[in-house]
Structure prediction request, 153 residues.
Amino acid sequence: MIVRKATSDDFPAIAVLFRQINALHHQHVSRIFNEPSDQDQEYLFKNFEDDSRTYLVAENEGVILGFVLASITKNETVPFLSKEPVCWINTIVVDHQRQASGVGKRLMEACQDWANSRDVKELRLEVLEFNSKAQSFYDSLGFKPQARVLYKV
Prediction:
């Protein structure tokens, strides 16, 4: 398995994987996540062409096993918040048949390397409460809670 920067040829496989995670999110939090649709691909492609983001894919023998979409942001407007850049893990998806096989860990390591090469020292992400499997994965990588997002309907 190799992890590399995605190319436009990877886009169809990325879209299939994104559909998996979107369906899972819709199943558990349908008031926030819409059903997967063709508009998802438009969103993905728009981000694919954005130079402030990166798509990294895990590939084995020509098959895309997973991907991570990450971006680097920097606070420029709020004076009491740090101006240090932060790498946000926007989306990480491992094909449901390949989970718990090391693919996600390799993707996150490559993302950390990408962030480090840009002098970014902190990775952040959000994980939904229902997704205990993902929470355990992030815990195993050393991620710690930093905030809670609360809601009321």
User: Anything to note?
Assistant: The first strand starts at residue 2 and ends at 5.
